[in-house]
Specification:
single chain, 169 residues, 7 helices, 0% strand
Length: 169
């Protein structure tokens, strides 16, 4: 026969289990916010690095195309168009090669301490949004932790997880 004492203890375990489930969801959402911040930060840094890396190839292409010697470079000394596609492909490959070199060099240089202020400036708005979201999540977690059921718990701390509470229930 089930007594009222056992029912109230079972209800206490259920409420504790629900609070711990909510706390785990809260921790997961906090980690998701941080992961999303890192992804967006990396995406933004890659975009800026790509734009910087495009500058040198564009200058090269612009100087070749808009120079007085553009026709002689494209048509050669004979003035025929038989090798024009070879030269266009070569020029595009040279531009791609320059882009890759500058991109990789920029990525490596951005790891040094001297570029931290630039990174901080790039991610300033993202960090502000992250702080607001994490603070809201932390406030919600502190409310859950400071709940009277978890604060004055009848369950020993080593069993205070949602998996162990399910076993106890």
């Amino acid at each position: 026969m089930v007594t009222n004492q056992k029912i109230s203890e079972l209800d206490y375990c259920y409420v504790s289990w629900e609070l711990l489930q909510e706390l785990e969801k809260n921790a997961f959402s906090r980690n998701e916010c941080i992961r999303a911040f890192k992804k967006e930060s990396n995406d933004r840094q890659s975009l800026i690095t790509s734009v910087v890396a495009l500058i040198l190839p564009m200058i090269l292409l612009g100087s070749i195309v808009f120079s007085n010697r553009a026709a002689s470079l494209m048509y050669g000394s004979t003035g025929t168009t038989e090798n024009i596609w070879t030269r266009v492909v070569g020029l595009l490959m040279l531009s791609a090669f320059l882009f890759l070199i500058v991109y990789m060099l920029s990525k490596e240089l951005s790891k040094y301490k001297a570029f931290r202020p630039i990174k901080k400036l790039i991610n300033q708005d993202l960090e502000a949004n992250l702080r607001l979201e994490v603070d809201a999540i932390d406030q919600k977690a502190s409310k859950i932790v400071n709940d009277s059921i978890l604060k004055d718990s009848k369950i020993p701390e080593k069993f205070l997880s949602s998996e162990f509470l399910l076993v106890i229930i």
